[in-house]
Amino acid sequence: MNATFWRYTTRRKLILLFCILVLILVVFEIKKSSLLYGTNKIKKPRQMSYFETAEESHVEVYNGFLTEEAEKCETIQIAVVCAGYKASREVVTLIKSVLFHRHLPIHMHFIVDAPAKKILGTLFRTWDVSDFTVSFYLADKLEPKVSWIPNLHYSGVYGLMKLLLLDVLPVGIDKVIILDIDLIFLEDIGKLWDQFSQFVDNQVIGLVENQSDWYLGKVTKHPWPALGRGFNTGLMLLHCEKLRQIKWNEIWESVTKKELLTFSATALADQDIINAVIKEHQDTVFILPCFWNVQLSMNTNSESCYGKDISSIKVLHWNSPFKNELQNIHASLFQNMFYSYAVYDGALLRNPVGKCTEVEESREEFSKDFCQEMLHKSVQLRRTHLYYLPFDYISSDHTDVTLTLHLSIDRIPMLDIICKHWEGPISVAVFLSDSDTIKLLKHIEISPTLSNRRNIGFHLVFQNFDDTSYPINLLRNIAWQQAVTEFVFLCDVDFLPSDNLYEHLKNAVLPLYPNSSKFAFIIPAFESLWHKFDFPPSKSELIDQWDRGVITPFRSYMWKVGHAATNYTKWRNSNKIYSVNRTKDFEPYVVLPKHLCPAYDKRFFGFGWNKVSHIMELDALGFKFLVLPYGFVIHLPHMASLDVVKYRSSTEYKNCIDNLKVEFIQDLVVKYGVSAEFFY
Asked: What is each CA distance from 438 to 13, 88, 344, 409, 433, in whole angstroms?
């Protein structure tokens, strides 16, 4: 008995010792992980490549860098149809929710129109997410293959595009998850991917049962045929290899043509067609658990899926055009879940997935030198979302001009005032956080001016969570580069254009000068010494206020050199365009041909020499500076920005700008072959 007890005790001790060793290893790995994925980390560099063949010239790929270790992990393939400005904005919340929970590399395949391709291409390039690849397939190449199908769904022809995925996905992809843009994930998408392992025999498509009575004929009298309640196609698992084997395209086309003999059109786009196919080929469907697609449209009974256990929900689906009109007892909670992803800082989702990506502990010791820190900030990638709101303006006039602006979220109200003075197109770059997007949308919604304008391109540049410094010249570049007109008016949001300046430029000035000429038209800048003043409707009224001391040339008391070369004395009495020469530190606001405009130097960050450097380069390029005798801008008074305060209070800041000036001039000397004296 003692021997047995001893052997039992020894075994227990050995097991306990083994558990302690395992625990030590786990703790070590956790500490190691915290070192690797903490603030002191670097990622392997990533590549941008464009994939194009003679057969697939519409395909473009953004490849996230994968290490050999990452390539051993299975990549989850996801397909999404996304078209237009609104959809390109809404899909971001879906992507954030997927990235938040994922533990594997992801390859997303987007069927897109031209605007969505431009918007999402820029977004993903500047988002710079690890272990994340994106491919784009232009919908206009595919449209003829489904445009023959009459469709009443609000998504139009794009509601049928999911039927064509086998036509666009590379043959090597044998499985794919298809998602609508109005989903959010509350669980790792890898667990949904695991459902493929449950497919048997002829099962080729995984779907969640429809949670409304649509196909039972209780919502509409004559629905398309379906198996039982039918299935919702907002989330699908497709086994591409098997689908190709059974000739899927031939099957759905044949079923569609047969049903169109009875029905005049589809009501729910691809969902009607896929349900009709499943009705005839019942062994093809794998029924997913309902919590993978909890449907929240006005006609669903989603509570029947999850009951009282909300924690069981894996995916929420707002499958209705009326997203905020939920008839669900948990509507408020679900909307809060949605907004928690919508405002989540996208920069926090850049990190690689733990077990698949090689991450090295950073050996780089960033210099504590203030100037080096400024330069480091100027080259950081900042997630950029072009055309955040619908934009509907096509310019066919070769003398048309876009007002280009930049601002932070606190200065959005200034845009309302500017719009009352400038009826032409505007391109504005907005620097903000993810949570600020809610403020932006609400302000525009309640603004009678902004809500009715469709010729304003809003381009959002997001703050990095560890750096909120204002990247002024990056914003300027984004604003003017997105202009859709021949000419651009490079200005700041705190300057109000004179009445009818847009029409004056477009009809009276620019027609006299071909856009191939290197002319930069100076718009004289003024300011008021009073906090409140009556905006002068004409040049004569402005001169009257100038004489009375209400208006003065901009910064004539504190930074006269910035605008003195405009020659305000001559401007008072002139009724003709006249030329001026650039002088040291000259920084006027100008109108010039877009295609001849050089980029602003992004090294000038925050306050100091950011416009001066651009005017210097225009001069080096051979631009002639012409002052317009009619038209002006007046500065709107406001609190000094944080960058201005930093500049004025920091000798170190000023020294950095001075050093950068010297470096910038040396670069221009090399670039344009002129002497350094030319710039002084």
From this structure: 59, 16, 11, 11, 10
Q: How confident is the model at residue 366 (pLDDT cuts 50, 70, 90)?
A: very low
DSSP H stretches of helix in 515-632: 539-547, 568-573, 612-620
Distance CA 248, CA 537 (A): 67
Per-chain mean pLDDT for the chain: 85
**What are the structural domains, with CATH classification, of the chain?**
59-349 (3.90.550.10), 376-679 (3.90.550.10)
If we measure between CA atoms, which residue out of 111, 120, 170 comes closest to residue 143? 111
**Within 13 Å and on the Cβ side, how many CA atoms surround 470?**
20
Alpha-carbon distance 455 to 457, whole Å?
A: 6
DSSP state of 670: H
Which contacts of 572-576 are long-range, i.e. CB under 8 A and separated by 24 or more positions? Answer: 572/543, 572/546, 574/627, 574/629, 575/629, 575/630, 576/629
Residue positions counted in the chain? 680
Local structure of 296: helix, strand or coil = coil
pLDDT at 344 over 70: yes
Which among 247, 270, 246 is positioned nearest to 259, based on CA atoms?
270
Q: What is the pLDDT of residues 9-33, one digit of tens each?
A: 444 444 444 444 434 333 333 333 3
Residue 570's nearest CA partner among 629, 616, 529, 513 is: 629
151 DSSP assignment: B
Could you give the 3-state DSSP secondary structure of residue 260?
coil
Record the pTM: 0.86
- Residue 402 binned pLDDT confidence (cut-offs 50, 70, 90): very high
User: What is the C-alpha end-to-end distance of the chain, expressed in Å?
Assistant: 101
